[in-house]
Amino acid sequence: MNPLGANSEIPNRLGILNGKPLLKSTISAEVWELSGSDLEEFDRRVKAYFALGYPEWAVVKIDYVTRTIYLRDDRIGRGRYKK
Predict the structure, then answer these.
(1) I need a surface site. Which of 20, 35, 65, 78 has the fewest CB within 10 A?
(2) Within 13 Å and on the Cβ side, how many CA atoms surround 20?
(3) What is d(CA 3, CA 79) in angstroms, rounded to the nearest whole number?
């Protein structure tokens, strides 16, 4: 289950999804522990964390096994929305 409603496709081992590179990141063990007990709080904490550190980036996949979060660059003029 992906609480953020993010894309269910799996990026390859290099972090490429649909031909576009993704940023691979993670969060603290404390937040990961919430994924097993409180998905609503996990969702809130993940969104808040990445909103501060990576504004205008979108979470597209959460890999619970490797504890990896994949982000797509949605800034205007970069990443997905190049002019």
Answers:
(1) 65
(2) 15
(3) 24
Q: Where are the alpha helices (DSSP H) in 1-83?
A: 29-34, 39-53
Q: How far apart are CA 28 and CA 44, in angstroms?
A: 14
What is the model's pTM?
Answer: 0.70
Chain mean pLDDT for the chain: 80
Note whether 60 and 6 are within 8 A (CB).
Answer: yes
Q: Which residue has the higher pLDDT, 39 or 74?
A: 39
Which residues have CB under 8 Å from 22's CB, separation 6+? 11, 15, 16, 60, 61, 70, 71, 72
Is the predicted pLDDT of residue 1 greater than 80, yes or no? no
Structure tokens at 35: 């994924």
Q: Within 13 Å, how many C-alpha atoms sit on residue 72's CB side?
A: 19
